[in-house]
Amino acid sequence: MSENPTIKLNPTGQLMPLIGVGMWQVPRDKATNLVIESLKIGYRLVDAASDYGNEKEIGLGLKKAFDTGIVKREDIFVTSKLWNTNHARKHVREACERSLRDLQLDHLDLYLIHFPISLKYVDPDVRQPAEWFDDVEKKETIPENITIQETWQAMEELVDAGLVKNIGVSNFCGALILELLKFARIKPSVLQIEHSPYLTQERLINYVKSQGIAVTGYSNFGNLSYKGVFPHADSAPILFDQPVIKELANKYGKSPAQIVLKWSIQRQIAIIPKSLKPERLAQNRDLSGFELTQEELHKISSLNTNLRFNDPGLYSIFPIFD
Questions:
Q1: What is the pLDDT of residues 159-204, one digit of tens each?
Q2: Of 57, 207, 251, nearest to 46 (Cα)?
Q3: Residue 232 marked as a ligand binder
Q4: Rounded distance, CA 146 to CA 40, Å?
């Protein structure tokens, strides 16, 4: 496997790196440096979102990387996401343009609908990021009656306008993708989902791949990102302590994290791990020089218990995965 493996996206034919750096939960005061350091050591995909609250800082990092010659714009792949409060047609473009201004870019390589959930509009001058709740006390989640079709057609218009090269969806279940494909003029290029050995979602992944849709997996290390947030994340066994992961790490002389990440990209599923520690950031990208066997891939997949951590049904009124 090459040092920078890629997957070809439909319908554009653009190559998306399979190894990226995720910006979720990255503090604003760390985001600029993380972008710069990631690009220096060879990352070529940056996964952002307006809801992460750090796109301005990411933009500073990107600009510095361009200005100092670390990378050129055409060498990297930048993803952002449309938040739930901007699903109305009239708000989709302004949300995308705001992300572009913050990121200091003239186009995005990929723009995703973050969740299949439409919420009451929040003026970004009042609160940005808008998050899940309608007021600053975070007391109420207010849905809006906006269809996925309306939002998707507005996403397609972003492609027409040259603001976005590829569009896709995140946190969509199979039924919603089946419905979307009935009316999509431009098919989604990517589905981004929670994906780890605890949550393999194989039927969903096999279906979208059959439709020419690439897959990106987030929360690659299972419950580690959610400890202290949800009780079931605290009580779940640490993925890296699973015997099969430890055995393969010892066999190949790699870290448990590298084994888990390799399990994904060997199956052509893109990964977006993050780390604020330089040595781990470099390690997460160093996945060449060894290959897991089909039997080993299967053993890792057998850890699946359908254990999901990022579930709006836990923290909102939307049980989208039930």
A1: 999 999 999 999 999 999 999 999 999 999 999 999 999 999 999 9
A2: 57
A3: no
A4: 42
pLDDT number for residue 132 = 92
Q: Which residues of the chain have pLDDT under 70?
A: 1-2, 136-138
121 noted as active-site residue: no
* Bond before 11 cis per omega within 30 degrees: yes
Catalytic residue from among 43, 52, 121, 226 = 52
Domain ranges across the chain: 12-188
What pLDDT, in 10s, does the model give residues 5-25?
999 999 999 999 999 999 999
User: In sequence order, what are the residues at sequence separation of 6 or more whose Cβ sits closer than 8 angstroms to the Cβ of residue 311?
Assistant: 319, 321
The CATH-assigned architecture of domain 12-188 is Alpha-Beta Barrel (3.20)
Return all residues near 45 (Cβ < 8 A) that are at least 6 apart.
16, 17, 19, 20, 21, 76, 77, 78, 79, 270, 272
At 62, list the tokens.
Answer: 């990107």
